[in-house]
Amino acid sequence: MVAANPRARNAAPADRLLVWYDAHARRLPWRARPGVRADPYAVWLSEIMLQQTTVKAVEPYFRKFLARWPRVEDLAAAPTEAVMSAWAGLGYYSRARNLHACAKIVAVDYGGRFPETEAGLRALPGLGPYTAAAMAAIAFGRRAVVVDGNVERVVARLHRIATPLPAAKTEIRARADDLTPDRRSGDFAQAMMDLGATICAPKRPACGLCPLRQDCAAHAAGDAESFPRRAAKSERPNRAGAVFVIRRADGRVLLRTRPPKGLLGGMSEFPGTEWRGDFDATTATPPMALRFEPAPGAVTHVFTHFALNLTVHVAHAPARARAPEGMRWVAIDDLGEEALPSVMRKVWRQAEGALKRHDIRA
User: Fold this and answer.
1) What is the chain's mean pLDDT, rounded?
2) Which of 47, 152, 269, 338 is an active site residue?
3) Residue 302, CB half-sphere, CA atoms under 13 Å: how many?
4) Domains of the chain by range and CATH?
């Protein structure tokens, strides 16, 4: 007896999903209109930006990047500082470094054309299994199994997968492979993402509107919201540190650039201490011998692996004060062009008010 082809068996759910997608697809700035071939550069740029970031947060950054660097060759030729500055506020800054490195490789080694296979795409910086699969399917129409967080949720509910994430990822991918059709692979991938984002939401899924409800085991059991199951998270550790914001009398502030690798690599920052779990404020040494005053309150920021608490200290410096080695004076009006990450933008907002309230003189 010949075993049934699982993809043929799942053709009906895929067809229903594609019919739904044709009527309800989200209109996104990087998504090609029906009948128009997707731009691989736009697909790549959006997929890198969307990693661990919401569509709402990404849209203005995507438009800004595409307007400033409309081709991959333009992005490759841009100064690193300009790319990091344009990315500032979007978070996960290693993505920006990999984005720029990838653009250079595609522009130089591939003549501005992205590889069309998953294997070729995986060889590029910043493209893991998900991004390579998404690009292969959406940009080049190749059959690929595209599994992001939205797809994980849809598949876990369809099959009522009890294994908690992340251990369930292998099973979820296998089930997604069974469901993925050979035709319209890019549309199917985007349909699954849209379904998870708009209908099969984490809380209060709109099962009555779902084109796959008749196939969904969790919907039949009445417990869709309890899937996917997740392993208990370990408590996020805390770190602390001090930041020193110095305003020179000519309207400049002191900045430095973080090392190119590591957390916030290559980004600009106000000088400060290391961020440590055992931070001792009495050992915090300012970068210049000035009269510092603490800004009220503290700056808190949550990274993926730890929560940060920063005390901010402010001081004024004479107009001709020289910057310490490895640091530089930047006009306050030019801070918007600096690659300041979100945590440093928080620091500046707090310091700016303190500098205005206190007449601190060197």
Assistant:
1) 92
2) 47
3) 2
4) 6-226 (1.10.340.30), 238-357 (3.90.79.10)
